[in-house]
Write a structure and sequence with these properties.
The protein is an alpha+beta fold. Helix content is about 40%, strand content about 10%. It contains 4 helices and 2 strands.
Length: about 90
């Protein structure tokens, strides 16, 4: 279930700003702990990604800060794919 369309429909007069960020593979502690940071899986993702690399946390964080700020006051119900171009 996608949460943000449900929020918009539930409160049409006073919609809550609601967004989704869909990241690709991002190099995090969890990715390292799961063994995905190196090896064939990572190489496969990098080969499929138009930018040719996996994401870094600082690739995602500016978008999250923007969506949480007043700069995005006229943005609602959007999904940002921040994945280096992979879909």
């Amino acid at each position: 279930m996608r949460v943000h369309p449900q929020l918009l429909r539930r409160h049409p007069r006073h919609p809550l700003p609601s967004h989704e960020i869909n990241p690709g593979l991002v190099e995090t502690e969890g990715v390292h702990a799961g063994g995905f940071a190196e090896g064939d899986f990572r190489k496969s993702i990098e080969a499929q990604t138009p930018l040719g690399r996996i994401g870094q946390p600082n690739d995602i964080s500016p978008a999250a800060v923007f969506l949480a700020s007043s700069d995005s006051k006229y943005v609602t119900g959007q999904t940002l794919n921040i994945s280096g171009g992979i879909r």
